[in-house]
Amino acid sequence: MPFTTLKRSSPPNFLSRSVLFVILFLMFSRFIVDPDFGWHVAIGDYILKNGEILKKDIFSWTMGGYVWGNSYLLYEVFVSWFLEKFGFVMLVFLFAAIGAFGFSLLIRKLNLIVGFLVFVVAFLPVANLGVRPYVFSFLFFSLLLLALEHGTYKKPIFSIVFFLAFALWANVHRGFVFAILIFGTYLTLEFLSKKSVNRWALVSFVASILGSFVTPFPFKLWSSGVVDDFRTWENLAYIAEWLPTAFFYPVNILFAISGIVFVYMLVFGNKKINPVWFMVGAFSFAFAFVSVNLISFWVAIFVFLVSRHLELPFSVLRYFGRREWIFLGYISLICAFVIFINFVIGANRRWGLSSALISLKYPVSAIEYLNDNEIYGNMFNEYRWGGYLVWQGKGRRVFIDGRMAGWKRDGVSILGDYMKVSNGECDVMSKYDIEIVIVSPSFNIGCFEGFHEVWSDDVSRVLVR
Questions:
Q1: Based on the structure, what is the number of domains in the chain?
Q2: CB 365 within 8 A of CB 440
Q3: Measured between alpha carbons, how far is 317 from 314 in angstroms, rounded to an integer?
Q4: pTM
């Protein structure tokens, strides 16, 4: 029996969307202190206190004075200010609301199947959402997809909007680079499809590119955000966010499911669907497969397409009929309850910044020991603690932190030297005058034989020379 398209009733808009928003809000309320959170706050604090935009590194002793393009400037100032005024918990809730709102913008039709798929793929970018600048990129990218859908990029007045939006985006998160790539791909495919291109569409695209240069680091921002990352193989080989999605479980399983649904829509979907959107989707899927860092953008396109074009022939749906919204609400409430329990457990363990830092095993006690005993000097630290130490280290400069994965001096990668030390290749030590070591108990300290341990617990150990 051939497949037949089954028309399903739409659930009550306010109820279904409200339930989904609450579920997403609870999912994204992650009381997690990201390894990069510390240096973001430290830079924001510096700008607010000194009224000066940092253009050179002042937080490390290995790459001091390095000039880099900071694409997080406004994010850092905002997060630093908000954290000081309202605290960590309110910051978590704010970012959860922004992430849930970004998802909600993408959804046109919400039914049982769409709601379930949105719920499933929402787990894919969870690691990137939380209190991270990715949240703003996800929101901006959602707005870009809507602008492409409604053709606002073809209207003269919106060329100004695109310029201003990308000027803001370039100072919040470097995800604007991928957005420009998607925008250009969409226009190219549209041209190939229609054999013509709207003049104002090109103006809006050029305005977007020009807007990304409205920063204190116009050209350096692009070189730091693109060139530095891709010219340093250690960055691509060792930093998790640049590794293929297939390496991460269960993200790879959920990613594969989303790909299967996408192929289903492409093969069995409505033939009136604009093929440009599916080609853009395939383009985005390929990039997300290569790098888990880009999976948030794929999720946005997937939710956008599923809520507009997914049609299933399952005859079991006939059973639901007009009562589908009841089942949607019932299942959503069950899911919301499970997520709420997880939310309560996480909040109970990490309610407040201090509790979160201790729960996430940052070297809080080790820093207290260094402060109490006034121990200072050139510090070797674990990469994942670099941001925290920049922020809470009381002026101690770090060996490396999350900003520096793509940094090189005289052609030598600081991340490469860090990896050599951590792998026991001790010859590189002769280049550095290390005086303090702060690492986890499992870290290979074979290169620090001349040091003696002055502090240790189940989280960290401190060695001095």
A1: 2
A2: no
A3: 6
A4: 0.89
